[in-house]
Amino acid sequence: MEAIKYSLLSSLNDEVLETVFENSIVSITDSLGRIEYVNNKFCKILDCNANKLIGETHELLKSPLHSDRVYKNLWRTIKMGNKWSGVLADFSKTGNPFWLDTTIIPLINEEQKNVKYLAIYNDVTKYHEKNIKLLQDDLASKNFLKKIPLNVFTISRYGKILNANKRFCSNKVNDLIDTYLYDYFSPEVFEYFKQNIDKACVDKLTHEFELYDFNVVGEKKFFSVVVSPNFDEIGVVVSATIALYKITKHNSSSNKLIDAEAKFRTIYQSINVGIIVVANDKGNITEWNKGAEAAFGYEKEEIIGKSLTVLMSDKYRKGNITQLKKTVNRIKNKQNVNAVEMCCLNKDGSQFPVEFALSSGKIGDSSFYCAMMLDITKRKLLENKLKVKTKDLELFLYRSAHDLKAPFSSAEGLLDLLKDEKVSEEKELLMGMLDTVVKDGKELSESLSQASNILINKSEIKKINFSKIIDGVLASLKGVEKFSAINFKVDVIDTCDFNSYQEKIKYILQNLIQNAIKYSTDIEELDKSYVNIIVRTSQKEVIVIVEDNGVGMHKKKIHKIFDLYYRANRFNETGHGLGLYVVKNIVSELKGRVSVESSVGNGARFEIVLPSSV
Amino acid sequence: MNIMLIDDNKIDLFVNQKIIERLSTGCDIRAFTSANSAINFLKILEDEGAYPTMFVPDVILLDINMPEMDGFQFLEEFEELNKIDKKSIRIYMLSSSTSPQDVEKIEASNSCIGLIAKPLKIYNVEELLEEFRPYLKRFDAEAEDVSLVGFKQSIEV
Q1: pLDDT value of residue A321
Q2: Are B2 and B28 contacting, i.e. CB atoms less than 8 angstroms apart?
Q3: CA nearest B104 in A: which residue?
Q4: Element (H, E) at A84
Q5: Measured between alpha carbons, how far is A554 from A570 in angstroms, rounded to an integer?
């Protein structure tokens, strides 16, 4: 006490000191912690008489409200002669808790060689209680935030989560912080989500929108989203608060819709045969399913938003794009779209063929395109194998038909020799029959080899000289029965060039003329027989007409004459039912058409129309 | 007239020979069963020089489809010969094949005159003889053709 007195200015007398003491809470303890002095206010707080306190150890300094560490720190500080300050708490003798902002000053008395501790207290119970209340309030609001069905985030402009109110997508709050909000949504909705958040940040207004997403099992989830921007002092948007509300309640009809959608989506996502890519009208990929992932090697996250052309092989890109454009135009004009074959590129850079079907739809104002691609590598392989096989077979047929002719020719030659030998009438009859059989066999192998020759030998497209071909055909038919008696009229006007396969045109003419001769009227009236061969060319097409006044055929049989191995005239056994079949095949290959007019006894008229450009 | 027949099929050779003999007995016919042996024969002819007594073909009837060397390969080899008077040798393809490809090849060929379809017919041989007449080097005394008589006389004069 004296020490304080000494240090006071002389102008401050005991009365002033008394006032200070009255208004503050003061205690003095000896070096062992026993109370030597307390003022009234101290007694009041402790609810206790000063007499009861003096000589006792200072309980305040080891209250159960504080941990031992605080006291150890306190004693260490003051024993070293330093001032200590901090908040101490205790209960009064009547059990009320109190908090004191305490400053302990060691007073060292050189004469008595002891230390006393002066403690000056400030009652902070009121503030402390307020604080506790505040903390409780805070906790309550925090709990409220956690309990509300909203997910509230504070995010940066770029979607980085700065804070979150509770777990989201089974991630703890701590794990959510510093990740990007967009990562918790499927890539398909990224664009839309980002646009809306940007809108709120740019407009600096709270913005509400709805969002849907699909969970792992393909179920559609709806979110109602509110974004409001947060500003700094000068009004710059620094972050945004975003509240997500998962809409789970729907009426039954939309529930059905959602179920259906989930079903379709699951199917769509899990299809791994058909490759489905949905692109928006800019040609960017917006959807990507498992099939596409397997075929192209890109994962959903990598590919969405990229251009569809990424999937196309460099070499064929130009062609593919023109083809795509064509298809898109066809779609726009509401025309039918056929599947097209294209060469695509996977992530490793290897190419594979796909069949590609494009369809379009419209949602609101924006149209989208759905590309269904089917990996046809296997089919292509098979196709190629089949082509090779077919070619082999065709060649086999040609070789056999061709080689078969040689023995028939030899037999025919031998028969010719035999005819000059003198034989009995009976043998002559047999020889005649043998002759017919051999000639028939030769003719069959001839028409077979001709037909197969058309199949295997693909010559280049040349300008067709019809007159020359017809002359050649007539010359080759000179040896045929009835030929010399028939009046041929050839009328060719080919002012416009016509380009095609020489052999095929020749085959058509050869067969039609051959048939016209074969089915001309019987020998008696042969001198009246005619065969007209008419050719007319135009820019667009060429018309070839072969007409005769021969035996003709029954109307009912006309549609059958182009069938394989069909013979209209049974009594005349020279036909093999091959020629017209091949003619029809050639005509359809050249994208032309053939028509026949005929009735019994009135001859036949064959008209073939071939387009100029194939 | 000297006729060389080349065909791997012996029956065809026989038939052809018989048909020609039937029409004209004065023809000297040599038959070869392979294009190889025929071309070798011609080569020997070349080396030894053409003696009037030797067989020099006026007409060659050539089969197309033959093993080892086919008709067209024979033509190639034939065109390489240089001492022999190639222009005086008339080559006809004699084949059962009448495929457009073969016809085209024959049209494009320098040394081959035409294609005769098998089997060889009497009228084919008649045509051959008729076409050959202006090229006759040695007169065939036994020829029955009347028009040849005047020709014979003019030579003798």
Answers
A1: 73
A2: yes
A3: A503
A4: strand A84-91
A5: 12
Size of interface A-B (CB pairs under 8 A): 56
DSSP code for A485: G
Q: Do B11 and A408 touch (CB under 8 A)?
A: no
Which residue ranges form the domains of chain B, and what is each CATH number? 2-156 (3.40.50.2300)
Distance of CA A492 to the CA centre of its chain: 58
Specify the pLDDT at position B151. 43
Q: Tell me which amino acid residue A92 is.
A: S
Which pair of tokens denotes residue B23?
Answer: 């029409």
pLDDT higher for B139 or A406? A406
Q: How many CB atoms lie within 10 A of CB A485?
A: 15
The closest CB to that of B97, out of A405, A476, A502, belongs to: A405
Please report, for chain A, the start and end positions of each structural domain, with discontinuous segments joined by +. Answer: 2-131, 148-256, 271-375, 459-614
Give the pLDDT of residue A579. 82
pLDDT tens digit string along A512-562? 998 888 888 766 666 778 899 999 998 889 999 999 988 888 888 888 888
Q: How far is B101 from chain A (nearest CA, A)?
A: 9
Does the pLDDT value for residue A356 go beyond 80? no
Chain A residues lying within 8 Å of B15, measured CB to CB: 410, 413-414, 416-417
* Closest Cα in chain A to B118: A409
Q: Is the pLDDT of residue B144 over 70?
A: no
ipTM of this predicted complex? 0.74
pLDDT of residue A37: 82
Contacting residues for A106 by C-beta, under 8 A, at least 6 apart:
A78, A79, A81, A82, A83, A115, A116, A117, A118
Contact (Cβ atoms closer than 8 angstroms) between residue B15 and residue A416 = yes
Residue-wise pLDDT for A593-606, tens only, equals 999 998 888 889 99
Pick the closest to residue A88 from A136, A40, A140, A29 (CA basis). A29
Query: Given 3.60.130.10, 3.30.450.20, 3.30.470.20, 3.30.200.20, which CATH number is that of A271-375?
Result: 3.30.450.20
What is the spatial distance between Cα A328 and Cα A374, in angstroms, rounded to a whole number? 18
- Token digits of residue A291: 């099939």
pLDDT digits (tens, 9 = 90+) for A366-392: 777 777 777 788 888 898 999 899 888
Contacts of A413 in chain B (CB under 8 A): 11-12, 15-16, 19, 118-120
SS (H, E, C) B116-128: EECCCCHHHHHHH
For domain A148-256, the CATH superfamily is PAS domain (3.30.450.20)
- Does the distance separating the beta carbons of B18 and A417 come in below 8 Å? yes
pLDDT of A3 > 80? The answer is no
* Mean pLDDT, range A132-157, rounded to an integer: 83
Q: Is A55 left (phi over 0), alpha (psi -120 to 50) or beta?
A: left
Least Cα separation, residue A335 to chain B (angstroms): 44
User: % helix / strand / coil in chain B, to the nearest 5?
Assistant: 45, 15, 35
Strands A530-537 and A487-493: parallel
Average per-residue pLDDT in chain A? 80
Antiparallel, parallel or unpaired: β A351-363 and A366-375: antiparallel
Ranked by mean pLDDT, the top range of A204-218, A439-453, B58-72, B87-101 is B58-72
